[in-house]
Hints:
Layout: H1 7-15, H2 30-49, H3 54-78, H4 87-97, H5 105-118, H6 133-136, H7 140-145, H8 150-159, H9 161-176, H10 185-206, H11 208-233, H12 245-248, E1 251-253, H13 256-261, H14 268-273, H15 282-292, E2 299-301, H16 302-311, E3 321-324, E4 329-332, E5 346-347
Amino acid sequence: MEDLHSYGWYAKRVAKYMPKGVFKPVPKRLWGGLAYLSIIISGLLIISLTEWHPLFFLPISFILGASFAGMGFLGHEILHGTVVKKPWLRDLLGAIAFWPLSTGPKLWRKWHNLNHHIHTQHEDNDPDAWPSLERLSQSKMFHWIYKLPLFVRAFFAFASLAVQFTAHSLKMFCAYIKDFKPKQQPKVWIQMALPWASWIGLLFLIGWEKWLFAFFIPLLVANLVVMGYISTNHRLNPLVPVNDPLANSLTVTVPKWVDYIHFNFSHHTEHHLFPGMSSKHYPLVKYYIKQLWPEKYHEMAMSKALIALWKTPRVYFDNRELIDPSHGHLYGSLGHGLNPENIDYKKMNN
């Protein structure tokens, strides 16, 4: 039987090596948010108030999109309570940080903090886990899609990263709104509707052409940046019956300056061990994990992880393997035969 342990089991053993104060909130992280907010406001004003040729707006759109994503990474940290502790201030700042991505703080904490973190890579209970062949085989569209060659599916899957976070957020709203108490539901509705209302209002204020550069293109860029991380967090890992972050999570490596502007979001295994710890301390957590369990820890360059995603299908066969149903090709997952340096498959016996 596979040697799996809960995140609490690991956390207990790593925590004793941590210096005092690592679980205290770090409000200085808000300076990064202020920088992003200043960039976003400046970019929106330039696009809205100037009459430049649209091509001059394009680089501003990319900067806005990168800032939208940066705000989302900070919002993720804020809503885990690692920046400020007061619930009303946490939710207010989280709402502001997630405003560009139009995701409300109450929905995010329900979907991400509770369901995803508690049930990571559980086929039935993790809202972010990819499904198994058994579940998907009931869909007629599934059979049609998987008749396409793998590289065609991979192309469209990667193209869809530009909308996946937004689409999944709306899906999670529909999935969880009824789980909130009746008195809480209006707040969840308002937190979802207000950002969208503001962005649609901006459309009527500045017109279609400028709106494309002020919001639509930046939203696509932000989705790509955010989903570049999210798509590698768990999708190469197996489904597991025990929430073991060393088995079900992947840490990717990026240049240090990227880690700096993205609040160490790349340290995903570390985050699942200590979601209540500021990501400022995750490099230290990584050091001790690699000292204690080097053979179980999964880490690779972001570029290599994305290439591995491109070359493997996204359907689980037996929780540990990925399957291309149209050809009966089985690919390993991390810890179960997947070699990012040489991705290969085996044929099913039947």
